[in-house]
Amino acid sequence: MAVAELTSPAASFAHNYNNANRLRSSQLYAPSSSCLSSDHFRSRYRSTVLPRITCSVNQVQNSAPVQVEAPKDKAECYGVFCLTYDLKAEEETKTWKKLINIAVSGAAGMISNHLLFKLASGEVFGPDQPIALRLLGSERSIQALEGVAMELEDSLFPLLREVNIGIDAYEVFQDAEWALLIGAKPRGPGIERADLLDINGQIFAEQGKALNAVASPNVKVMVVGNPCNTNALICLKNAPKIPAKNFHALTRLDENRAKCQLALKAGVFYDKVSNVTIWGNHSTTQVPDFLNAKIDGMPVKEVIKDDKWLEHEFTEKVQKRGGALIQKWGRSSAASTAVSIVDAIKSLVTPTPEGDWFSSGVYTSGNPYGIAEDIVFSMPCRSKGDGDYELVKEIQFDDYLRSRIAKTEAELLAEKRCVAHLTGEGIAYCDLPEDTMLPGEM
Amino acid sequence: MAVAELTSPAASFAHNYNNANRLRSSQLYAPSSSCLSSDHFRSRYRSTVLPRITCSVNQVQNSAPVQVEAPKDKAECYGVFCLTYDLKAEEETKTWKKLINIAVSGAAGMISNHLLFKLASGEVFGPDQPIALRLLGSERSIQALEGVAMELEDSLFPLLREVNIGIDAYEVFQDAEWALLIGAKPRGPGIERADLLDINGQIFAEQGKALNAVASPNVKVMVVGNPCNTNALICLKNAPKIPAKNFHALTRLDENRAKCQLALKAGVFYDKVSNVTIWGNHSTTQVPDFLNAKIDGMPVKEVIKDDKWLEHEFTEKVQKRGGALIQKWGRSSAASTAVSIVDAIKSLVTPTPEGDWFSSGVYTSGNPYGIAEDIVFSMPCRSKGDGDYELVKEIQFDDYLRSRIAKTEAELLAEKRCVAHLTGEGIAYCDLPEDTMLPGEM
What we know:
The structure is a homodimer.
Chain A: H1 9-24, E1 29-31, H2 38-45, E2 66-68, E3 76-77, E4 100-105, H3 110-121, E5 131-136, H4 142-154, E6 160-166, H5 169-172, E7 178-181, H6 193-214, E8 220-223, H7 228-237, E9 247-249, H8 252-266, E10 273-274, E11 277-279, E12 287-289, E13 294-295, E14 298-299, H9 300-303, H10 307-329, H11 334-349, E15 358-363, E16 376-382, E17 390-391, H12 399-418, H13 420-423
Parallel strand pairs in A: 1-2, 4-5, 4-7, 5-6, 7-8, 8-9
Antiparallel strand pairs in A: 3-6, 10-13, 11-12, 13-14, 15-16, 16-17
Protein name (chains A, B): Malate dehydrogenase [NADP], chloroplastic
GO molecular function, one term (chains A, B): L-malate dehydrogenase (NADP+) activity
Subcellular location (chains A, B): Plastid, Chloroplast
């Protein structure tokens, strides 16, 4: 059975619907093989270096009368998710929303291993939102990615209706309405931030092009792989068809950590802390803002009357958290990073509580704070819950906050010069003064 | 400020309530140190071998006028969770249920690393159920456990109100209303099932005694550490004050995997598969029941007309899943195991859908199927959602199912003889015929 290539979520829905009806007309059916055969894989990707993928798990010695071929979708569907289904005909799913496609890069990594199960459980997009996961791995990780897909199968999440895995962003990002870009090369020994900007920048330039070519034109993009601000800038510069406003660099874990440290210092539970902004770069120049933050509705400076702590120790505590965690736990903070990605998405798909805001690294052009245009800078945002956001206007500044914002702004402008060759703005010139990677960051 | 030791959840609530009021009467307060100091730890546990625990993260150089001592609770509270709070006074939490204590052993392991964040997010017990996590680690894992607690802090879960960590079950299990016993010694090379029964049996005998002594008298106990059926039996025999009915051995991952394999074979989405029972031991003698299972409301045998597959390949596919996953993913199935623990708990705290059931390893005495009394055997259960369950009566048996049930029953009776020294029933006599550990199981 040949299946037409999909071009939009609506087409995808129709595809599944029609296909299900066709299948139902036969009495008994079964997939010829539910897993990815080595030959199938090689021919899809025209790769000669891909290792042999064994098929011991799902290979069905089929004696059923009707054989169904694996659908010829853009990326490889996996196992039980290759089976068609019929959302419309299911009485209990009539109140469900239209299926959305969520692409995730670095899908075989530890952050994704937490995040994917949260997405599939309905925790992020709600109990009435069926989802399709489109998972991008690498040749090295494709077997692990199959393992992830198997665990997603075994979890029986009712809302998870499709899982596709692949190693080509142009296939995996097809029709994506959300792109969560987690995969990046980790910083090995001796690799400086400038090197990493170039290595990972190339990945994000390529993924920007792929999003531009095949994703939904209003795709929301969340960049987690570091250096995430400048990666997000590179990505958006390579995706001119997608509004620059749709790109986010994740600074939510920093915000969450800042809230926790303020709570600890003030001796209150963390749910009393609000209006915390992380300004600028996701690096050691970042500025956790205590001037505008509130505890129990009161300005932080009226509750924590310890300027020395606020001006010196607070920022350090937020920034050293990742390194301290690695020391304790032996690995980087995958679980809480995944939670912060969930928080960041939820902040865009649910209305922001009255009077509060959230931090996200977003495009600066047109910002009301006088921050340089045309970079990705973490700033305070508010959302109506429609996936979009606006910058918060009622923000106070003092000399201390201004001077620290200027420093992180200068760093991001320097990073931008470093990657000019990747943003289409000429020849790169790299003069980063120091290593500002956050401790414990990959 | 000295704080009285807690003896019940109600007392705990009052403690927090009163303490919060006391704290509020002072203008400014902060914990003297939010993390566990090495000296403090040593004196609590009277241990000389505990490694030095560094305190670089949360140690506050405090200049606040009022110092608050770390509460002298039964287990060590962690960081921000040592801070008091006032549920009653919070307008928005007035509709919340009473806080429940959830104890988790093996809390620094990978399964727990998924499970704890699901518990804390409200996914398991609901959005109106505040929880306290009481985490049991070992001397070897206590630092990692601090790392887990730090990530829980940074996740800002509103429902997570207390986190205690410790290495003594008699402290950590205090007032537990749920005990999720995940920790067990993994099976190293050359260790047979009989050896593992003895090694882990001793752990579960001790934890049974601890639950008996300090947990809530109606605590629900879910045993995940293997060999889980006999571990659960040992645990319940050492906890005579707790109803034997309250002990469960986890076979839900097997049930989920069986559902997925039936869906794959029938070519339907997994939400069409119901009434799947796993009978017996969580080992290779387990019996995934296709006689009573249904696909789209029809008996499986009417949909999958392939007896050879059902009688031979189906069980093998379910059992080999864990091993296949390790091959692909390089580690055991932590994420989907955590999902199945969530499913198992939810099956007890939400009413079972009309006509369906779920599998759990439970105490056999009084069972309607003629299975030997006084063992822990996976059987079909139904719940009203009150934490309790009843066995399903309308079950069909045929000779094939009876003979396979007899085999897994014989194995569990043999395992019981192996651990007689741990259940208080005399001298152990171990004649396990073969190694029946599931592939890929720890």
